[in-house]
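batch job 7 of whatever, protein = Elongation factor Ts
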Amino acid sequence: MAAITAADVNKLRTMTGAGMMDCKKALVEADGDFEAARDLLRKQGQKIADKRSDNETSEGVVLAAVSEDGTNGKLVSLACETEPVSKVPDFKDLAQRVLDTAVKSNAATKEDLLAASQEDGRSLQEHITDLMGKIGEKLVVTAYENITAEKVASYIHSDNKKGVLVAMKNVGGADVTTVGRDVAMQIVAMKPVALDKDGVDSATVEREIEIGKEQARSEGKPEAMLEKIAQGKLNKFYKENTLLNQEFVKDNSVTIAQLLDKTQKGLTISDFKRVAIVG
């Protein structure tokens, strides 16, 4: 049996990021063969992944990055099972790796992001799986968003578990830094379901109309009036739940659409993405 030195253990630890005891155990089992030991550590991570695949991931971190010219934004969320794990350096480093990979690869989808090659030739998903073996919890990229626009604004909430990207158009020569952040904060707080009423899916519209009718009926309103009352309630739903029609939380005398137009004539939002890790 090969003699396993502290230098060997440290070398494997540097290669894999696994704990010292896990590295020593893997090297002993592999009789000093580094590649075999590395494979054993990977299998350990995969066992954790398989064993804990149904576990809930209600903790973690959301990160965002906007390109230097402000025309592209990336938003990622890396989730884990418990709050203590979300605070450890290895988890934070992995979350930053996920974001850095998104920026470098400009991946179109979450699947492309997870498949993106790292500096050691392994995929991002393999790095995630390896850390599962070290930490002993399920780790998963729960969301990835990639937006390109004239200007993109981002906001990460103070709990680091909610984040937003906002795509703006008709910017002109205006400085939209402040209004972009304000709108992003609005989205985090008010959770709009769509940009405007045209973005609300038909199933939601039908459900809101039926709810409105049932409420009116329970209040004793005449059947002939139910449709009109339900439409009124639907318009209220649009005002409260679509971004451009919502009242601005910092000044409810204006809607978001009016706020944008006051900043720069014609300025509006073309898209937004909200990501949250929900406990």
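notes: The first helix runs from residue 6 to 16.
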